[in-house]
């Protein structure tokens, strides 16, 4: 299995719950390394650009409103099969469907406020990492 990088965002609800460290522990226990990280309060333009793929979906406005409602923690996770592994740790988009022990099961309140983001494929991971980090801000290890 190849070593990959994926973009992870701890969303405003989870930052407000003060569980950044708890989520980092879950990533690390799964063998994922944090190789870049930054806290940022996204502007409307930044959130719209990040979720541009969803711009015609009915939930787009709510999604952008939520993602700009408070600071987020953005990180690059590196490890074997990192993209799938991170999505497994996060659980299903809708917390009502997320398996016990996943981040969204344990911390998310709703499909809108669902605690974490993770890239869904190698191409989107590369684009999303580029969206937030310059090459020299990522410390591969
Ligand atoms: P994310 O991109 O945030 O990691 O979430 P995801 O891949 O699991 O889900 P995605 O389909 O990419 O949707 C992005 C975010 O939009 C909200 N959403 N709401 N009301 C709805 O039907 C609906 N569908 C999606 C969720 O907050 C989801 O995380
Ligand atoms: Mg997605």
Automatic annotation (TrEMBL):
Q: Where does ATP bind?
A: 11, 59, 87, 93, 104, 114
Q: Where in the cell is it found?
A: Cytoplasm
Top-level lineage group: Bacteria
- Biological processes per GO annotation: CTP biosynthetic process; GTP biosynthetic process; UTP biosynthetic process
Q: Which InterPro entries match?
A: NDK-like_dom, NDK-like_dom_sf, Nucleoside_diP_kinase, Nucleoside_diP_kinase_AS
One Pfam family matching this protein: NDK
Task: Kindly identify the residues recorded as the active site.
Answer: 117
Domain Nucleoside diphosphate kinase-like: where? 3-140
Q: What Gene Ontology molecular-function terms does this entry list?
A: ATP binding; metal ion binding; nucleoside diphosphate kinase activity
The protein's UniProt keywords, in alphabetical order, are:
ATP-binding, Cytoplasm, Kinase, Magnesium, Metal-binding, Nucleotide metabolism, Nucleotide-binding, Phosphoprotein, Transferase
Enzymatic reactions: a ribonucleoside 5'-diphosphate + ATP = a ribonucleoside 5'-triphosphate + ADP; a 2'-deoxyribonucleoside 5'-diphosphate + ATP = a 2'-deoxyribonucleoside 5'-triphosphate + ADP
> Per the entry, which co-factors are needed?
Mg(2+)
List the EC numbers from the record.
2.7.4.6
GO cellular component entries? cytoplasm
The record's family statement is:
Belongs to the NDK family.
HAMAP family in UniProt: NDP_kinase
Role noted for this protein:
Major role in the synthesis of nucleoside triphosphates other than ATP. The ATP gamma phosphate is transferred to the NDP beta phosphate via a ping-pong mechanism, using a phosphorylated active-site intermediate.
**This protein is called what?**
Nucleoside diphosphate kinase
Q: Which organism is it from?
A: Aquisalimonas asiatica
Gene that specifies this protein: ndk
């Amino acid at each position: 299995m190849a070593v990959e990088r994926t973009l992870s965002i701890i969303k405003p609800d989870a930052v407000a719950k003060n569980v950044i460290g708890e989520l980092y522990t879950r990533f690390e226990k799964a063998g994922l390394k944090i190789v870049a990280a930054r806290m940022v309060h996204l502007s409307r333009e930044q959130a719209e650009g990040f979720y541009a793929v969803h711009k015609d979906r009915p939930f787009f406005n709510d999604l952008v409103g939520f993602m700009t409602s408070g600071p987020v923690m953005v990180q690059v996770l590196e490890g074997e099969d990192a993209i799938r592994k991170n999505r497994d740790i996060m659980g299903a988009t809708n917390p009502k469907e997320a398996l016990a022990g996943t981040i969204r099961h344990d911390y998310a309140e709703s499909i809108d406020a669902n605690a974490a983001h993770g890239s869904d494929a190698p191409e989107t991971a590369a684009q999303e990492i580029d969206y937030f980090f310059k090459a020299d801000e990522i410390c591969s290890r």
